[in-house]
Structures
1.
Amino acid sequence: MTATRPAVDVRALPRTVFGHRSLMWWGTIGFIIIEGTTLFICAVTYFYLRRNFTTWPPEHIYRPALLIPTIQAILMLLSNIPMRWVDRASSRMDVPAVRSGLLVCSVLIVAMTILRWFEFQSLKVRWDTTAYGSVAWATVVSHTTLLVLEMAETLAITVLMFGEQVEDRDLAGVSDNALYWYFLTGVWIPLYVIVFLTPYFM
Amino acid sequence: MVLFAMPWVATATQFLAMDRLVATHFFNQAEGGDALLWQHLFWFFGHPEVYIIFIPALGFVSSIVATFTRRPVFGYPVMVLSMVATGFLGFGLWVHHMFATGIPQLGQSFFTGASMMIAIPSGIQIFCWIATIWSGRPRFSVPFLFVLGFVVLFIIGGFTGVMVASVPFDQQVHDTYFVVAHFHYVLIGGAVFPLFGAFYHWFPKITGRMLSEGLGRWNFWLFFIGMNLTFFPMHQLGFEGMPRRIYTYLPETGWGDLNLLASIGAGLIAISMVIFVANVVVSLRGGVPAPDNPWGGETLEWATSSPPRPYNFAHIPVVESRSPLWEQAQPMPVVTGLRTDVRDTLVTTLLDAEPDSKHRHPVPTIWPFLTAVGTTILFVTLIFTPWGVVIGTPLFLLGLLGWGWPHGRDKREQQLVESEA
């Protein structure tokens, strides 16, 4: 072993950091890249398969219903307001604010998951009825797996926040969860436009 | 590249599984699906995958070249930028695997141009290595021989790559042995030779024993000659029209002699592999004990013992140069102030690598492994039945639950924070 001499003392460095200084943030970004690419592939496949049909949706298939999906899209957009509030509160280490904000977000994401069930019905096509049905279902199912995962994580974090001792690093976890929430709800808007609106003008 | 490329093959595979199991129609032409969609999805992964295999080999080569020429790599920034450029360009080439599927002419021209462009960063790197060797003091030990073998083979593979990037040429040799020859020169030359070099280079560090130089030279020369005997004749066989993926052919085709030559070459490669395995076995048992830095290397791994302790260094070294063992003053500067009673490590800033925060690694746990087992069960059963989702998903979720369950986490993190405040 080579002889050594002390050169840098890191005793005073913090243990809890937020945003891109945190390792978890980079893990979340990696996850977002993978899942974002998967959803992008669904969108690419949607337009690629469109070329094989003269009408869209194909003949004898109804266009999707718009009411529930539109409510869902608006709800997803608006849900970013309380989540942003939670995000800011967590970086201030303001535990009471984080608790109440997360309660609101938990209710919202459970509502979004229930609405998703009705969104599948709004597609008005089965997955085994032409390639159109297949790709529309695949796109919504892919996003739904992420939605369910985020619901589980948000509920778990909310429970954790009401535990007896909240650690600093848990608050950093709240912030990373918020980052994933922005992605989940943001990426749904173009997917909503593609799956539910393009059959009306393409 | 892995992050951006892997989802394509994962999603394509899911589409295929759904077509087979739940009657979707992604690739079913009769219901508006498209078989070519599969090719696009697969090759958008498949081509970057070539570089995912190949780029780590470039790292091996640069490390070995620097050590065995006893000078830092020539044109380091250009070398790094070339590697980054290869990473980007690698995503714009996938259609050159599909030139025979009848794609529009504009697409053909674009992907021909993009495919030929990859020769530029590759060429820059080759010239940088040659310049390093030229201006250094090369030692022709076994790892370095494998690198020289790489340079020769990869240049040949690169030339035929530029040839098949051209659509008219590709149409002539598509699905022939010419293509087999091309990608074996690229991947055996470009990835396997550096891998062997790396094995000889780092074996002493990993095991504490040197591999035999004599057996290593036999290994290299038989492999190099065998590889060329096997694959070089395949260029000609491709020109003569011998198609890929056949197990026999008629004697009138006249392909027999060159195929015999290729078989002799394959025999030589097999002998070289036996020698390699023998070398490893013999050296593990009775090889010369390896010193910490047997090759006079420049990088950090050579500063620790051979083999290294599980923790690598008692204190994290401070690195002030790309060649710390050659350029930094001794004794080696190190980081202090990390705890030794928990698995503490240092997180630095992304670009300047300045110390930024401390991070405690989790304690050892079986749950990630169990999660992986659950995932494997999920996907393997999914090949045969859609019930795979029902069987596998709870197992996978159970793994995640156990992994994240708070009872295993010790509350000492907060104590650490407070005691250090």
2.
Amino acid sequence: MSDNKNKAVQETLAKGAAKADAAYMSRRITIDPITRLEGHGKIDIFLNDAGDVDRAYFQVPELRGFEKFAEGRLAEDMPQITSRICGVCPTAHHMAGTKALDDLYKVEPTGPAKKIREMIYNVFMVEDHAIHFYFLGGPDFVVGPTAPAAERNILGVIGKVGVDTGKKVIAMRRRLREVITTVGGKIVHPVFGLPGGVARRIKPEEQKHFQEVAQEAVEFGKFTMKILEDVVLKNKEYVDLIVSDAFTHKTYYMGLMDENNHPNFYDGQIRVVTPEGKEYAKFPTQKYLDHIAEHVEPWSYVKFCYLKNVGWNGFKDGPDSGVFCVAPLARLNAADGMATPLANEMYQKYFDALGGKPVHHTLANHWARVIELVCAAEKFQQLANDPELTSDNIRRLPTETPKEGVGVVEAPRGTLIHHYKTDERGVITMANLIVATQNNSARTAMSVEKAAKGLISKGIVSDGILNEVEMAFRAYDPCHGCATHSLPGSMPLAVRIRDLEGNTTSTLRRDSDGSIHKE
Amino acid sequence: MTTNEKPKVGFYWCASCGGCEEAVVDLAEDILGVVGAVDIIFWPVALDFKTKDVEAMADGSILACFINGAVRNSEQEEMVHLLRRKSKLVIAFGACSHLGGIPGLANLWDKKSIFQLVFHDGPSTVNPQGTEPQPKLEDQGRHVTLPEFFDTVRALDQVIDVDYYMPGCAPTPKLTLQALQTLLSGNLPPKGTVLSPDVALCKECPRIDTKPEDLTITEFKRPHQVLIDEEKCLLAQGIPCMGPATRGGCEALCIKGNMPCSGCFGPPGRIRDYGGKILSALASIVGSKEDAEIVKIMDSIPDPIGTFYRYSLPVSMLRRKKMEVVASDKK
Amino acid sequence: MTDEKKNPKGTAENWEPRIVCFFCNWCTYLAADLAGTSRIKYAPNTRVIRVMCSGRIDPQFVFEAFAKGADGVFIGGCHPGDCHYQEGNYKALRRFHLLKRVLKGMGIEEDRFRLEWISASEADHLKTAVNDMVAKVRALGPLNLEIPAKISAGEVSA
């Protein structure tokens, strides 16, 4: 072939290749699965030509259909059936379901039954919040977000705060769970809930034991706050990260409040405040449909909750977007104070440090969570000392014909709504469940995308983004919080960079020893 | 980090609630003894799970894989097939993988009816464009995927070959520890063993002495309709208790909570269809010989399928409700 | 057998309902024998299984019949009060009522499951009942449960 012809061929080939490259508009990074929280979730990040993030999708790939197969079931079975939505927070669903039954049968639980329920519920809040702080989200803080990957887990926490602390945490968790087992039969999927009461009395010797555990819990709460103060709040770098823009969203905030606008995890009215912190709405739980709606996207099985009257205007912040937030950050923003003394002191300190209400920094969830842990422990103690706890009067039998009921509690991860309709026999004809994490799903998706956009540019992927993108959703502690256990090391992670055809062009790997390798 | 001496162990979850992961963690201090003896080579909940890594392992190089959760989408099906190839032993851990579990109640419906409610008809759902999650989506040039949702929920052994079963919703820490120790000891029980005593729950129930010889029911009582005596046999109080047809080993925790057994451990050996057996047992003790009266008594169990098959619908002999038209199912 | 045999729309022309029958040894089975010796013709769609008593019938038998392709299940036992084992048929009656509800919940129409008291001398009654049931099941069409031929191991062992 002559040189000229050869050159022409080369040019044509080059032109063709350039065209093909241009046609590959984006490249894709997949984080699958996400770790140290939800079991099932993945993040797909798409880059544009410049290598900056075009779009990030936070995808929940699972659905089981509880609302559908609840139809035809017996109403009184719902607390036990719905608790299988989540094995980490079954008590939350069980309680929301039980309260929905109270409303369904229009039967008021007896005084002692209410106290038993509230006590159990606060024990559960302490236990669940503690797990998140020490094992799930906490390590990002206690050890630090840019610490070597090998240390960003419970072992790193222990390394920072001592082996005794680790043992203390495991033992405290066990003792709290044993309290729930005593009253509820089982800890994973308890059975105590009935309309108008609870299934089982508490014996005097059991109450005595609860009082001991309650005292330990309060001490443990104070101890946890001390760790947070010493290790996190005194560290300027961490505080800078907490208040950084990449992790800030200005949305509405929601929580269950008592008549003094103090958060009450077990009961209350739903209160919503604006991004500026003003009360936007406060309504009885039965009216939730007037305020909360769910939006559907084709790239996730989870639905996205928003404020109906503000409307769905996309994944955006601000007073014109119906996106709202729940869980500790939100509850403290929506409150005027905490119901118990120690927690209330901590609440004041928190807002003083972070520049007043409301706090929009997603990572502050971790701090707010510890404040709630202390509040729940104090409440546990109050109720454990109540003489009515051992009463025989734990059941009020329903007499009304069932029709429709709504039960709402604050799960550790946010406002949880159970809504049932039945026929006259009490057989479910409709069930609508708004699970706590759904209320946060829009904001979580926004946080992930914002973090990805803020941290990835020019197609460069590093260990920092691997963890910091994860931190964006970890702060929300999505339901199905992962089990606690001892890890042999860190979470190895791989980021695969793929072209549009799905072929892996390069892989970045972080091994269990924390070292990063590019393949 | 892996050593050649320690056997490799893995955990995976399908359509699960996470309660079985909690059950393992509830071993608390005891888990350290186990963890010291094995190499946990993956646990998606905590260790980054890489399909590529598992694929790269030699077939059969994982000693034991504990899989919980039922199989109800394409991702779960692919994963369990992969794990089966790579593992010597597969243990179906918990009621969902053993029997289908509570998510198995979705077998009374199909994908179409579930999607219709969840994404369209629900009272709080606002979806004027009729959007639904898509297994494959092209959004402005970006290709995004989701697993495919099947019509029918399956237990683990309806998808892959299973070696052992750990029953319970969730399995108790005691039984879990025993199971782990057995598997590590090398004295393996016969394949297909359910790792819990082969007796009916009544045998280990603290209230067994109050169960009358001659038990007759004139009306079934639902738990919210009566005050429940904390010492007496629940069936004797007229409350449907699944104890007679349910495998023991759980130490009757629900009964200690003063509520009836709901059957989460599944049947003892020699029973093929759990719901059929318990319905037979309860029907037999109904104290009437008259058609009309019997019908009335049966009315006091308004939801027989939810009561008798709460955990075991997928493995029942009929497996699922016959819908008018069931969309094609990837069996 | 007759010209009323018209299968529902969409069903193969030569489809015949298959009814699995559990007949108790002392009554209904003898009635079937009597029908035979008396040359009383009835629909040939039955597959008869003899049990000692209708009370022997485990719901698992019924499920298995449907799962393995039966379009209907027919239980025949002694009249109340006449059971050879005193109370067996009452147990069958109670199980029948509860089982019927479960089958309905599983999408199996009521007409596919039937319980009749037929004494040893009632060959005519047997004929009427069987013919009636076959006609009803024919009208419903094949059940076609989508259960693989291989049901998982561990079928009912008596």
